[in-house]
Design brief:
Length: 652
């Protein structure tokens, strides 16, 4: 009878240990494609890292031409030209600036975090994380759904796969999660040959399509005739292309990933952490090269698919829906080559989901635990993988594994991140007094804002999914912050030379006696009055020397900071002055540090405050101060389980 509980407990412990493996590791050391190099690691050549970003960026060729044909019809090539112009003249300059301003992989979100202080910046970051989660999650689900389309449409696929788009997509997502639960190793070695093969196969397909068009020039004539019949003038065509191009915006995905992987790029031997000039230069080369390659492929693929595929075949259920280039590969190069192309496309689309998941696993731990807005288990990879996989399953079921229906949500996440990057770049160059660049980036910001609004109005699914992620992040972050408010919340406690001298001198007479003081007048009368009241109402031994402990709140929105204690003698009293995000947590941290330094348990003395306990709680959560005595005691109780070693808290 006693064996069952023991076995159950052992199984629970093993499962917990497996699930939380790596909990104490730094999030940036996650062994995925976006991790930072370890100290001493040289990094990789920029073109190899470009292949890593390319599994996300270049893989959009698997579905972008079909989506463009559905959105713009015969005007797809012209709308693609508009998209390319926005890519090269808008997104590329913006992210070249982001690479300069945020060279350590934090991206545009970190730039905006620096612009807005206190809680405003934290809330903005949480909202942007919601949109980033939308971007990355839809990358996983959309790429898996498009990989499924290539599976079921292949002529060699078994008949029982027909119509199984939903369950096949869920299987691919499950395999992705299983890989990360097992442990995702360095991805660059896989990404380089994968991207090289995929782009090579696409180049062959487009070359054969170009030959087909050149040998049958009537196709061009038929296209231009149909365009003329649909639109009255070239100006009308341009106007329609400008209106519909926001639907093609997901063709710009991958730039945020490009700056996120900056720490992987090898810099110059003279690079330093504060000035990684070589890494910035090579990252800009990466971004430019990737944008030029993708622009050429987008234009050529748009022309080929528009001229060679009937418009009806792009519709839902049609043979070219979600797989336009694969359709051309089968038609013009045969079923064997087409199957090889399908396998390459399926692999890179699946790997794009892996890259997106690795991005999420690095992005979330980068911010939320630092804000105190995530439970401790979010620093472990496996619980986060399970959470993200559950979200991916729900999104896939919601959209029924349909590529076209998910494109709006994907574009929304991409455009919000690009809009934030453009705005952050505008503010950055304006702060440097560069008027021309400010006007240019400001214009790009306006264009991205228009593109985002147009996309949201046309396809609101994206904003709905983003809203779900944002609400979930805000709600869980709030409850996590409240739950963790009573943690110690201090890194290192450092006493300056004067503080150490004052503490050592006071400790010679016995345990330290500290009076917690909120300075107001900062006068001799204030300190003498406070000391007199504490000696009269508490058990401070007569003649015992006291130290005043004062805490100044710097930024209450921060969760954990290092604490520096400055000592001085003014107004006839000896003071220890510290700064921290909250008063009680900082006092508790200082008391524990003083205990460890002197070897004796210190005593701290508070005065009760007048006011509503609920109001004090709100002030503590928002402003870092309130009724400090009971909160300090609770922080100490949680930080030191042994009552004999726990600092004493007295209240009068």
């Amino acid at each position: 009878m006693t064996g069952t509980p023991v076995r159950s407990t052992a199984l629970h412990d093993r499962c917990r240990g497996w699930l939380l493996k790596g909990l104490n590791e730094q999030p940036a050391r996650h062994p995925g494609p976006h991790r930072r190099p370890r100290p001493g690691q040289e990094g990789h050549s920029w073109w190899r890292v470009m292949c890593l970003t390319g599994v996300d960026y270049f893989s959009t060729l698997g579905y972008q031409p079909g989506i463009a044909a559905l959105a713009a019809g015969l005007l797809s090539p012209l709308a693609t030209v508009v998209l390319i112009a926005l890519t090269l003249l808008g997104a590329l300059p913006v992210y070249r600036r982001v690479a300069h301003e945020s060279p350590h992989g934090s991206g545009s979100i970190a730039m905006l975090e620096r612009l807005l202080p206190w809680w405003t910046g934290k809330v903005l970051v949480l909202v942007l994380l919601g949109f980033a989660a939308t971007d990355f999650m839809i990358t996983i689900t959309l790429s898996s759904a498009d990989a499924t389309a290539h599976v079921v449409e292949n002529p060699y696929a078994p008949h029982w796969l027909r119509g199984g788009n939903l369950w096949i997509t869920l299987v691919l997502i499950g395999l992705l999660g299983a890989v990360f639960l097992k442990g995702f190793r360095e991805a660059i070695g896989v990404a380089v040959p994968l991207v090289a093969v995929y782009l090579g196969l696409n180049l062959i397909v487009l070359a054969v399509c170009a030959q087909e068009i050149l040998t049958h020039p009537a196709r061009v004539g038929d296209w231009t005739t149909a365009l003329t019949a649909q639109h009255a003038s070239p100006l009308a065509m341009i106007g329609v292309a400008l209106v519909v191009f926001p639907k093609l915006a997901l063709g710009m995905s991958g730039f945020e990933t490009g700056v996120a992987v900056m720490p992987q790029i090898k810099g110059d031997p003279t690079d330093t952490y504060d000035n990684p000039a070589g890494r910035i230069r090579r990252t800009r080369k990466l971004l430019t090269t990737a944008a030029l390659i993708m622009s050429c492929f987008l234009l050529l693929s748009s022309l080929a698919t528009t001229l060679l595929i009937p418009q009806a075949d792009f519709r839902s259920g049609g043979p070219a829906n979600g797989r336009a280039l694969a359709y051309l590969a089968h038609v013009h190069l045969g079923q064997v080559f087409g199957t090889v192309y399908d396998l390459s496309t399926i692999t890179i689309l699946w790997f794009a989901g892996a890259s997106a998941l690795a991005g999420l696993l690095n992005l979330v731990p980068r911010y939320l635990p630092r804000y105190g807005m995530a439970p401790e288990w979010t620093r472990a990879v496996r619980p986060l993988v399970l959470v993200f996989m559950l979200a991916a399953v729900l999104i896939t079921v919601w959209f029924r594994a349909n590529v076209d229906r998910q494109s709006g949500a994907y574009a929304t996440g991409v455009l919000v991140l690009m809009l934030s990057a453009a705005f952050a770049s505008t503010v950055a160059v304006r702060a440097r007094g560069r008027r021309g660049a400010t006007v240019g980036f400001g214009a790009i910001t306006v264009v991205f804002a228009y593109t985002l609004v147009a996309n949201v109005l046309e396809r609101p699914d994206g904003i709905k999914i983003a809203a779900i992620f944002i609400v979930a992040i805000l709600v869980t972050s709030f409850f996590s912050r409240v739950h963790r408010s009573f943690e110690l919340r201090a890194g290192e406690v450092d006493l300056d030379e004067t503080a150490r001298r004052l503490v050592d001198e006071a400790a010679r007479a016995g345990p330290l006696r500290l009076i917690a003081n909120y300075p107001q007048e900062r006068s001799s009368r204030e300190y003498r009055s406070k000391e007199h009241d504490q000696r009269r109402h508490t058990l401070i031994p007569k003649g015992a020397r006291v130290l005043f402990l004062e805490v100044t709140v710097t930024d209450s929105s921060e969760f954990t900071t290092d604490v520096t204690v400055h000592g001085d003698e003014r107004f006839g009293v000896r003071r220890l002055r510290a700064t921290g995000p909250t008063v009680p947590n900082t006092i508790a941290a200082v008391l524990l540090a003083l205990r460890d330094r002197t070897g004796e348990v210190p005593h701290v003395y508070f005065s009760w405050s007048e006011g509503s306990p609920f109001g004090f709680l709100i002030r503590f959560l928002v402003f870092g101060e309130g009724e400090d005595a009971p909160v300090t005691r609770e922080v100490l109780r949680r930080a030191e389980p042994d009552p004999r070693r726990r600092p004493w808290v007295h209240v009068a």
